[in-house]
């Protein structure tokens, strides 16, 4: 029984079915935002949500059976913990004061696409690994922002108090500049006072936008390469004794079934065994 469950859970088609259910559930959640559709097909939508939740619960049970009796192996995988948490939140009753929480918990099911698709898992793992390194880039960016904010305050706060009257407002203005959203409007107002103010803004755009963003990209790409290398090392790890014994048992069972089939068809007489 356990071997059958292990083969079922490990089959590529199993993941494809789960992905299809997640996508279908996401479409269903989008349809629920239409009052007309809810009035017409609300009961069917509720039934669809219950069916998807039941399949997710069955999936978790099957994965636990596959690693039984060591259920802790299931919870050692952070993605399994995430899937189990999504199921737990989905069991919140969708009535009373918890109705809004239950509706929001349904949205977490769409996030299960990340835990189901290996490529998305790799990207998310890379982003998590990049957080410590990004902290240093953020520190560098904060220093640049602070220096430019104080400089901009002293240069433009009398002429353009809307954007530079305090250091805090100056930081907000610089954030607008670094997003490249109508930043030239701020620059032209400053150039009414200082014709060479464009040097200040252009230098900040070059340093704050292009240089820092490229640093972020470099950090992510570096960690992505490390994550791929680590995953490759995991795949190249030697097979454990337990795994070898399990494969041998599976092979022996397959050979036994093949011999029985040959005997039934008269192509492998028992005396030749």
How would the blueprint of this fold be written?
Elements: H1 2-10, H2 12-31, H3 35-67, H4 72-76, H5 78-90, H6 99-116, H7 118-156, H8 161-164, H9 167-178, H10 183-191, H11 197-235, H12 241-264
Give a brief rundown of this model.
By secondary structure, the chain is mainly alpha-helical.
What are the key terms here?
Four Helix Bundle (Hemerythrin (Met), subunit A), Helix Hairpins, mainly alpha, single chain
Walk me through this protein's architecture.
- The chain starts with a helix and ends in a 9-residue tail after the last helix.
- It is 82% helix and 0% strand.
- It has two domains: 2-116, Up-down Bundle (Four Helix Bundle (Hemerythrin (Met), subunit A)), CATH 1.20.120; 123-233, Helix Hairpins, CATH 1.10.287.
- It is mainly alpha-helical.
- 12% of the residues are buried.
- It contains twelve helices and no strands.
- Helix 3 crosses helix 5 (78-90).
Number of helices: 12
Query: Which bin fits the share of residues in helices?
Result: over 70%
Largest sheet entry: none
CATH level-3 fold name of the largest domain: Four Helix Bundle (Hemerythrin (Met), subunit A)
Terminal-residue CA separation? 28 Å
Second CATH tier, the architecture of the largest domain: Up-down Bundle
| Total count of strands | 0
User: What sequence of helices (H) and strands (E) makes up the elements?
Assistant: HHHHHHHHHHHH
| Low-pLDDT sequence parts | none
How many domain regions? 2
Structural class of the secondary structure composition? mainly alpha
Average pLDDT = 79
Overall radius of gyration: 29 Å
Question: CATH-wise, what's the superfamily of the largest domain?
Answer: Voltage-gated potassium channels. Chain C
């Amino acid at each position: 029984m356990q071997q059958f469950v292990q083969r079922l859970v490990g089959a590529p088609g199993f993941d494809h079915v789960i992905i299809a259910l997640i996508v279908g559930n996401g479409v269903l959640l989008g349809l629920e935002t239409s009052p007309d559709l809810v009035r017409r097909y609300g009961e069917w939508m509720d039934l669809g949500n219950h069916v998807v939740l039941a399949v997710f619960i069955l999936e978790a049970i099957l994965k636990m059976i596959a690693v039984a009796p060591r259920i802790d192996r299931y919870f050692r995988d952070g993605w399994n913990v995430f899937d189990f948490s999504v199921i737990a939140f989905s069991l919140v009753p969708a009535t009373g004061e918890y109705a809004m929480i239950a509706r929001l918990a349904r949205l977490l099911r769409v996030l299960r696409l990340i835990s189901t698709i290996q490529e998305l898992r790799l990207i998310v793992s890379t982003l998590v690994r990049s957080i410590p390194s990004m902290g240093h880039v953020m520190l560098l960016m904060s220093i640049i922002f602070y220096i430019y904010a104080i400089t901009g305050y002293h240069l433009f706060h009398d002429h353009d108090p809307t954007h530079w009257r305090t250091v805090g407002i100056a930081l907000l203005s610089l954030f607008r500049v670094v997003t490249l959203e109508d930043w030239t409007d701020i620059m032209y107002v400053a150039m009414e006072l200082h014709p060479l103010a464009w040097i200040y803004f252009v230098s900040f755009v070059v340093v704050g936008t292009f240089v820092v963003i490229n640093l972020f990209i470099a950090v992510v790409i570096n960690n992505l390469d490390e994550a791929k290398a680590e995953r490759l090392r995991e795949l190249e790890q030697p097979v454990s004794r337990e795994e070898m014994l399990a494969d041998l048992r599976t092979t022996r069972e397959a050979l036994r079934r093949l011999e029985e089939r040959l005997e039934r068809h008269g192509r492998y007489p028992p005396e030749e065994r």
